[in-house]
Amino acid sequence: MQPLFRALTGVLAAGLLLAGASIPIVEAAAADPRGHGSTKQQAIDWKPCPQDATAQCGTLRLPVDRARPSGETFDMAVARRKATDPDRRVGVLLVNPGGPGASGVAFAVDQAKSHFSADIQERFDIVGFDPRGVGRSHPVKCSTELLGQQPSVHPRNQAEFDRLAEFNRALREDCRRHTGPLFDHADTLSVVRDMDALRGALGEEKINYFGHSYGTLIGEQYAEEYGDRIRTMALTANIDHSLGAREFLVSSAAAAEDSFHQFVKWCDRTSSCALHGRDVTAVWDRLLARADRGEIRDPESADRILTAHEITFDAFMTFYGPDRDELATYVAGLDAQEPNERQRSEQPRQGQPALSREAEQQTKAEPFYAVFCQDWRIRAKDYREYARLTQAELRAAPHMRGSPRVHRAVAGCVGWPDEVNNPQHRLRITEAPKILMLHSRHDPANHFTWAANVHRQTRGTTVLLPYEGAGHSVYGRSDCTRDAVDDYLMELRLPMAGSSCAPAGTG
């Protein structure tokens, strides 16, 4: 079982493999404070990527603060896979796999060939970039030791809430110190302006864009700022950046709970499910109750007790696939642990060896909160407000106990300043061409209503194609979803209004 942040760490590590290589730097001409300047950009000096010479890598030097174009700069890492059929080339396809914190460079180099169809690879230069603060683009760094000291994100009273806020403030200052000025400009709107600078550096009047999950927010805001510079834009697992704190948390919790119920229904009808023939909901609730009593140990580390929140988070991550067989086997194994094993699992954990002074100075890339807390004005002021939000979560997701991921995200912003660089607002797209949106009906992380709301806000600009199955990824889910995106990107053909894609396989 791989929790999300561990999975994201692996993605980022793939991008960081480039760190020791010599990659050319090209300085981009400065734009005006809003990034709408028309100054000609220099071309990127592409070189073979160190870990895969079939892809090309480079960097683009950009201002940290667009309001101060002559101030500090950073180098944005970029990777490209050129169209395999140059005679039929349509243009560039910029890609972002989400996060916030996933590496677009790693995606272009390591995953694009398996993710996109051969037709897309023939017709487009696929270009990935690491957003500012991510991967090789001046990553946000924080003290490893401090990161390991995070208190519970489920405070039970005002004193525990105050400790969480105090920790978040200390971590924020630590990350700012290790990262420098870019930390205060890690928001998505700044990334959008970087992306338009990349468009200019590529010598393209218009771009094509494919964004997934948090990458859809980049696309949505690019369409607001630079709609006339888009040829096509396909967005999957969409973000609704107009939501307030309660709506955001409750809808996220409802998405997770819906995926749990989809799992239960699948298990009831699937003989290969390790829990088939049992009352899956009762097994699950009993398991979490045992975890609350400290009776469940980590099957990968017998001395470690699993909390109920860890179990729900691991389950939540399997819903992304969905990997239901894996989850059923995992739950069945935990449920089978004997009650008399409690004594052994309750033995005190062995203390960690004291860190050396050198180890204490080590840092870790941790961009998530720098981005999220500058994109969302969600700040619970005190424990009473926090508890009300938590109770609303629990009512929406009693079996998943709220939103496993978004709860952590919101908790990470407690204690941060009220001002944010890129606060929520309704989308206002006026100049963009038709944009294609795809979204799973049973997405575990991004509720389907998010896509419906975005479509409602931009009805004259967007076309929404629901995938009626489950899972977070959408493009490669079926021939229907893949063909819809491919036909649109290549031929500008959009699905008929009101159409949808049927579930594929176990989705």
Automatic annotation (TrEMBL):
Tell me which UniProt keywords the record has, alphabetically.
Hydrolase, Signal
State the superkingdom: Bacteria
Domain Peptidase S33 tripeptidyl aminopeptidase-like C-terminal spans what residues? 408-501
- Ranges for domain AB hydrolase-1 come to 92-305
| Disordered as annotated region, ranges | 336-362
So which residues are the signal peptide here? 1-28
| Cited Pfam families | Abhydrolase_1, Abhydrolase_4
InterPro entries, alphabetized: AB_hydrolase_1, AB_hydrolase_fold, Pept_S33_TAP-like_C, Serine_prot/Carboxylest_S33
What are the GO MF terms of this UniProt record? hydrolase activity
The keyword Acetylation is annotated on this UniProt entry = no
Q: Which family does it belong to?
A: Belongs to the peptidase S33 family.
Q: Could you identify this protein by its name?
A: Alpha/beta hydrolase
Q: What is the lineage of its organism?
A: Bacteria, Bacillati, Actinomycetota, Actinomycetes, Kitasatosporales
